[in-house]
């Protein structure tokens, strides 16, 4: 194996990433060295790159990663589902490494809120092992990470977004407690919205209404189970609320999932709920997302508002299983519509920022 490998480093926001070499780490007990085969660009990578979200520097961004096992540390023998691991196996893994011993890990079942949390693609790469992000040739997996072997029928591009976008939506779906035949509104036709629509169809929802401002996304999401699409560009909040009520017998939807990350969508979204409805807030994951709402409406109409940030290991496994069992039903493979090499990472980030592609894949081995 080579002793050095390449990574795209962000030294400060709003500047181009630069390719650097770091020495590959020796693989310690319980750790895994992965040769990255694909990393998709998440919206939060773009937000970090443009400075809309703060990130420590220098940093290797990218967390929607899939790759092949290059080296296994002593004791790293099985994945989270007890399947044996071997050199060359394709794996995905949780976005976080958690300690398993703190108050939130042990007592409250909130591994994503571990007091000693590390997140791939979110922490500084200054110190060894350096390779802790996805825009690189290798990634170093530490023992507190839940690793999942990728089923053979899934391509790298299909499975890469599972460990952020899809697993988060699965966690949000669980929080929403949606029953078959219920009506849902999905605010936002980004990657999370596409997965949410497919889950809603899979779980037997009746009306699956998706709102966004991009016509091409809304047309595309019909293939993922959306029954009704609403382009809310230029629509007043009252018109949006009325349109949702018209589609649901005048009552409003049972559940709303907010996956656009736009705080001004929350008040009209709450109004789109029927009495007793549930609102799951997922998209606004950067501070400053204030909104104003009449609390009396929440009380009188018995509304529930839940926040979901990241996910638990089981949600990633459920997401991978969902992809494997429904890849013939929904065109997950088409969510990635653009590809760049590691050398062209900056072009990839610009494409992702434009909204043209739901996901852009960074493929280390693609010739530049
Ligand atoms: Zn992400």
Structure overview:
The protein is α/β, with parallel strands linked by helices. The protein folds into two domains: 4-153 and 327-363, Quinone Oxidoreductase, Chain A, domain 1; 167-307, NAD(P)-binding Rossmann-like Domain (Rossmann fold, 3-Layer(aba) Sandwich), CATH 3.40.50.720. The chain is 26% helix and 25% strand. The protein is built from eleven helices and 16 strands. The strands form three sheets. Strands 3, 4, 5, 6, 7, 8, 15 and 16 form an eight-stranded mixed β-sheet that branches. Strands 11-10-9-12-13-14 form a six-stranded parallel β-sheet, with helices on both faces. It has a two-stranded antiparallel sheet with strand order 1-2. Helix 11 (345-354) links the parallel strand 15 (336-341) and strand 16 (359-363). Helix 4 (165-176) crosses helix 10. The protein is globular, with a radius of gyration of 20 Å. Zinc ion is lined by residues 42, 44, 63, 164.
């Amino acid at each position: 194996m080579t002793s050095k490998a390449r990574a795209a480093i962000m030294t400060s926001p709003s500047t181009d990433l630069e390719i650097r070499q770091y020495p590959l780490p020796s693989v310690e007990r319980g750790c895994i060295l992965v040769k990255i085969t694909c990393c998709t660009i998440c919206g939060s990578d773009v937000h970090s790159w443009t400075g809309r979200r703060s990130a420590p520097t220098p940093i290797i961004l990218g967390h929607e990663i899939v790759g092949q096992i290059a080296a296994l540390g002593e004791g790293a023998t099985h994945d989270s589902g007890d399947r044996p691991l071997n050199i060359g196996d394709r794996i995905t893994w949780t976005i976080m490494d958690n300690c398993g011993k703190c108050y939130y890990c042990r007592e409250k079942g909130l591994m994503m809120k571990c007091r000693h949390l590390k997140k791939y693609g979110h922490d500084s790469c200054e110190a060894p092992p350096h390779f802790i992000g996805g825009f690189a040739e290798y990634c170093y997996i530490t023992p507190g990470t839940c690793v999942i072997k990728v089923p053979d029928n899934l391509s790298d591009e299909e499975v890469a977004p599972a460990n952020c976008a899809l697993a988060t939506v699965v966690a949000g779906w669980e929080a929403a407690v949606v029953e078959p035949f219920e009506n849902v509104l999905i605010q936002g036709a980004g990657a999370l919205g596409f997965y949410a629509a497919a889950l809603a169809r899979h779980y037997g929802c009746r009306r699956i209404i998706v709102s966004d401002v991009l016509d091409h996304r809304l047309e595309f999401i019909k293939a993922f189970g959306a029954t009704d699409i609403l382009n809310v560009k230029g629509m007043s909040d009252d018109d949006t609320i009325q349109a949702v009520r018209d589609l649901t017998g005048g009552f409003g939807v049972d559940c709303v999932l907010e996956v656009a990350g736009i705080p001004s969508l929350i008040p009209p979204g709450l109004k789109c709920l029927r009495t007793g409805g549930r609102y799951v807030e997922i998209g606004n994951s950067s501070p400053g997302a204030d909104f104003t709402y009449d609390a009396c409406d929440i009380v009188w109409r018995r509304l529930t508002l839940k926040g979901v940030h990241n996910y638990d290991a089981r949600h990633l496994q459920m997401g991978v299983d969902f992809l494997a069992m429904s890849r013939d039903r929904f065109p997950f493979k088409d969510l990635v519509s653009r590809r760049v090499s590691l050398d062209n990472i900056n072009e990839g980030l610009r494409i992702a920022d434009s909204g043209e592609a739901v996901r852009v894949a960074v493929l280390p081995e693609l010739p530049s």
